[in-house]
Structures are given as C-alpha cells and as structure tokens.
Amino acid sequence: AKYRIKTGDRIVLSIYPPSTSGIEAESIPLKIIYEDEAMLAVDKPAGMVVHPAPGHAKGTLVNALLNHCSDLSGIGGVERPGIVHRLDKDTSGVVLIAKNEIAHRSLASQFKNRKVKKTYLALVRGVVKSASGIIETSIGRHKTNRKKMTATINQGRQAETRYKVLETLGHFSYLQLFPKTGRTHQIRVHLASIHHPVLGDKLYGGLITGPYLMMPRQALHAHRIEINHPVNEQPLVFEAPVPPDINNYLVAYRQNLNP
Hints:
This is Pseudouridine synthase RsuA/RluA-like domain-containing protein. The chain is α+β, with helices and mostly antiparallel strands. The protein has one domain: 2-Layer Sandwich (Pseudouridine synthase). Helices cover about 15% and strands about 25% of the residues. It contains four helices and eleven strands, in the order ββαβαββββββαββα. Strands 1, 2, 3, 4, 5, 8, 9, 10 and 11 form a nine-stranded mixed β-sheet that branches. Strands 6-7 form a two-stranded antiparallel ribbon. A hairpin with a 3-residue loop joins strand 1 and strand 2. The longest helix has 14 residues, at about 245-255. It is globular. The protein starts with about 30 loop residues before the first strand and ends with a helix.
C-alpha cells in the first residue's frame, strides 16, 4: 500500500465484463429492426418497461436483450446495460441499444448534441386548428405529483416539439411530431399544454371512456429515428410500423366518418 509507482514499472490490470446485478435473461420475443456488431434497433411494444426498476424486476426490454445478446455496453450502469435512451412504458416504437462502450459513447453523444432526428406519431384529443406548429415551453417536475411533469415558464429545462397535423378524425387529430429535445414525458406534456393531450394518456388528461372511445394506452408511437452509425458514421434510418392498436383505432374512425 506504501509502494510508489516509478517510471518503467509494469502494471497488470484485470478487466472483467460489467455485472448485470442479478438481472435475469428472459426468453421474451424481440422485434429486431436492425442489428450488427455494434448496436441494435428494436421495436418496443406498448406495456413493456425499458429497464428494471422498483416494481418492474422482470419482463423488461433489458431482460429480453440479455437473453438475445449477453454482450451489452455497461456504461449505462448495471441496471441499464446497453440502454442509450428510453421510451415510456406505454409508448411503443424504436429503441436503440449499444453493444459496446464505443457504440454507447457515440450514440449517447449524438442524442446529447441533438444530432438524432426523431419522428413520433400520436392520436390526440380535439381538433388541432393549426396545420403545423412549434411548442416551446420549459418542462419541470410537478410540485405535488412526483410521477408527473409539467410545462413551466421560468423553471425546468427548455424543450421544443414541432408538430404537423396528418389527419382530423371527428373529435380527434392524428399528428406527426418532431421533438428537438428529449425531456421526460416531453411530447405528452407539450400536447397537454396546448389542450390536446395524447389519447388514452391517463396521467395528462387524455383518458376517454365509452364503448367506441377506449384506447388501451397512450396513443404515442416512436415511428422513426435517423442517426449516424456509431462506428462507421454512415447515416441510418430506422422505422417501426404503426402498431395494431393505433392503426385499428384509425381504421374504425375513418369508417365511422365515411360509412
């Protein structure tokens, strides 16, 4: 313990693979959009949590990933191997995963520096009057409900979301959304702030009841991600098709409006 290292000394280090802290690999089907030696892109279904957390020890995307590929980046921590970014439990769509540290650093840097182009699709309550627009409000933690975020003026973190109306369906609108930033619940909070919450979003006012109005979860889908490959820097585009629950809702309302 008292030895001082001198010039010319040889130091031998043993590097062990990152521990997964007892996280179990589970045989859960994965919808793989793309995979190579550096990364994966998967289509996460609604209802699946991205990584283990209190109350969600099993059945997560990480549990499924460990069964598919045990070699994942450890930079995200023992509970989040390979995870570069997240989607909310009830949001479906594209998620990127890093297989090694080089890929993780590159992907994380692109997200941090806003080099990633993200496109979401959402069904929202009400008729959005402007064909397109930009929502710019800061987002911070709700004062009384710690599970909830809120749009703020002088507090929180700056956030920006562009939107485009694709279709109007009676009392609902179908939107394409382009978040510039990646704050917690950003799209959900921004849409609620302009009084058009995501359909089915219990937390932010999108829940509607009735035999023809039920949406089993928030109708928000991460449809497309554009990013550069973490190793060769080639541009990549990943898309996840509109899931059946949202598509069925669209079809039903189109038929109702055009019998």
